[in-house]
Amino acid sequence: MNFMCSWSGGKDSSYAFFKAMELGYRPKVLLNVMNEYGDRSRSHGITKPVLEAQADALNLPIHFFNSSWSDYERNYIEHLRILTETYPITHAVFGDIDIESHKAWEEKVSRAANLEAVLPLWEADRKELVLDMIDAGFDAIIVSCNQQLGSDFLGKRIDKEIINTFESLGVDACGENGEYHTLLVNAPFFKQRIQVEVNDKQVSGNYNFAELVLK
């Protein structure tokens, strides 16, 4: 029942981590995929020092590897296998909610490394999930978002007021369609809060990214 967690640094992966522990699974290591240059995470655009600060707050190791999208699956399986040789893990925890193709992929790569995929958030109501996270003491900020939201949302906290704002804009409450991504800065299982601030904002294609610095 030992697991590695696919760790984006955001609210969904961290809530899956939390729910897996509630189910009796024991965390051993976090896994994060960086872009091909190794300067920020592939999914959320978060720098390595910030992700390392989260791992320190969890008192867990974090394993990184760099990858382009074209080599992503091959590299992911390779590094899952490395983790199974390094840590006593039997399961892989993921934070996906209801996109069937994502679940199928996670089960596929886990099987390739002789791990069992666990999706603790699967088929939960998206809005209820976010509200449950907030009520449970999860404190997350927006670190990237599409142009439908715009750069003014970068750095804003995920709270009940902003969920209402999302709904008024026709944005999914959980951001599950890729509208926004978050960074978890505090949670009941963190030994200390992650102190970050938005130093700058960048635009890449249809996406806005916060340049974060640790304080």
TrEMBL record:
| UniProt-listed InterPro entries | Diphthami_syn_dom, DPH6/MJ0570, Rossmann-like_a/b/a_fold
A GO MF label: diphthine-ammonia ligase activity
- Is Ligase one of the keywords? yes
Q: What is this protein called?
A: Diphthine--ammonia ligase
Q: Which Gene3D superfamilies match?
A: HUPs, putative n-type atp pyrophosphatase, domain 2
Documented EC number(s): 6.3.1.14
Q: Which residues form the Diphthamide synthase domain?
A: 4-210
Q: Tell me which UniProt keywords the record has, alphabetically.
A: Ligase
Uppermost EC category:
ligase
